[in-house]
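Subgroup meeting minutes
Present: P.N., E.W., G.H.
Scribe: E.W.

1. P.N. recapped why we're keeping a running log of single-chain structure predictions: easier to compare across weeks, and new members can see raw inputs and outputs side by side.
2. G.H. added today's entry (127 aa).
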Amino acid sequence: MMTTLMVFSLVQPAMAGLLSATKTAGLIEKVDKVVENTVQLGESIPYDLEIFIGRIIRSALSVIGLIFIILVLLTGIDWMKAAGNEEVIRLSKSRLQSLLIGLAVILLAFALSYEVAKILAPLLKSE
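Output recorded in log:
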């Protein structure tokens, strides 16, 4: 048992060396490609304002969608726990209606901002 352990402990570093030698060549080529594609120090970094704004809008919509789902679930739980209490059911219906109206407003605002961005994007790029 001890001999086997010693043999494996001697063979393993040699195998690791062989593996790293074969993978190092491919890694060096990949690093060279990355270096070629990076912006040199002092050059301006290409940056599109529309991409930045698009990421902000997408992130905001993701957060708003998550909040909407949580609020709808909480409203549904309140409705189920009402146990026939008409006041709680009326309040839950009202809250659900408000949530749906809010979602419609948010989606319309997104659609409007998308259309405005589509119209303004060519104008901003021509400068």
